[in-house]
From TrEMBL:
It comes from Actinomyces oris. GO terms for molecular function: dolichyl-phosphate beta-D-mannosyltransferase activity. Keywords: Glycosyltransferase, Transferase. This is Polyprenol monophosphomannose synthase. Residues 268-279 have a biased composition (Polar residues). GO terms for cellular component: membrane. Residues 252-261 have a biased composition (Basic residues). It holds the Pfam family Glycos_transf_2. Signal peptide: none annotated. CDD domains: DPM1_like.
């Protein structure tokens, strides 16, 4: 199947060369789309140079740096318009191993046709390198909270290394995506689940960034927590409303049944008085 690896960038001049080399080595049949948000360090110019040298590499320039979510959505739109069947999300910083990329694509191509393949740190066989115990615990607890609030059955809903089938992206209302930062991954997982998409997880090894500066911030985690909480409350409110409607419908049905039974009984009762004649 025709696959496109979407790599968002902002000031990744130190990391992007290695990332492109590794993808081309381990997944040579896949194309690459670098989505650059106007990096002042020359990342976009470097991507253009590589695109001129290699027909498998493409570049989408965006003038506005407004978050990971909008960058990926722009990449998805580009991929769908170009006719790709599989669209991969992958970081530029080396945290996602290109060795795992080929396995994720192979899993997406299998006969059971998963709509979303998540490269998971927390399924059996998954791992992280360079993380302390506190960071591991925070991620696992965060995923437990996400599953509890949203009713998902995914061990790593926050994972950013994943493969979408183009068909599921076309079925989704991408206008409903609210998250700008790393909450985007949870947002997309939620939307796939809501329309009955098939989600599978594959173990990967997540590495610490090799070069450059992390884009993670406290605001990103705050956004994710607040969105998940709001979505969860809305989901439960909807469930309570549905339950109340169902109970009301059953109560009305029972009342109507009793009324019909009472009306039938009244119609069958004899009316007036009858006297027997004496002989």
């Amino acid at each position: 199947m025709k696959a496109l690896v979407v790599i968002p960038t902002y000031n990744e001049i130190e990391s992007l060369p290695t990332a492109l080399d590794r993808v081309r080595e381990h997944a040579p049949e896949a194309d690459i789309l670098v989505v650059d948000d106007g990096s002042p360090d020359g990342t976009g110019d470097y991507a253009d140079t590589r695109a001129h040298e290699d027909s498998h590499i493409h570049v989408l320039h965006r003038s506005e740096k407004n978050g990971l979510g909008p960058a990926y959505l722009a990449g998805f739109s580009w991929a769908l318009a170009a006719g790709y069947e599989l669209i991969v999300e992958m970081d530029a910083d080396g945290s996602h191993r290109a060795e795992d990329l080929a396995l994720l694509i192979q899993r997406a191509e299998m006969a059971d046709e998963p709509d979303l393949v998540i490269g998971s740190r927390w399924v059996s066989g998954g791992a992280t390198e360079g993380w302390d115990a506190k960071r591991v615990a925070l991620s696992k607890v965060g995923n437990l909270y996400i599953n509890a609030m949203l009713g998902l059955r995914v061990k790593d809903a926050t994972a950013g290394f994943r493969v979408f089938r183009a068909s599921i992206l076309r079925r989704m209302d991408l206008g409903k995506v609210e998250a700008l930062g790393y909450g985007f991954q949870v947002n997309m997982t939620k939307l796939v689940d809501e329309i009955g998409g098939r989600i599978v997880e594959m173990p990967i090894t997540f590495l610490e960034r090799e070069a450059g500066q992390s884009k993670l911030s406290g605001g990103i985690f705050t956004e994710e927590l607040s969105l998940v909480t709001r979505w969860g409350v809305a989901k439960r409110s909807g469930q309570l409303l549905d339950a109340a409607k169902l109970a009301g419908n059953r109560l009305r049905a029972a009342r109507n049944k009793r009324r019909r039974a009472t009306a039938g009984y009244r119609q069958q009762r004899p009316t007036g008085s009858s006297r027997q004649k004496r002989s």
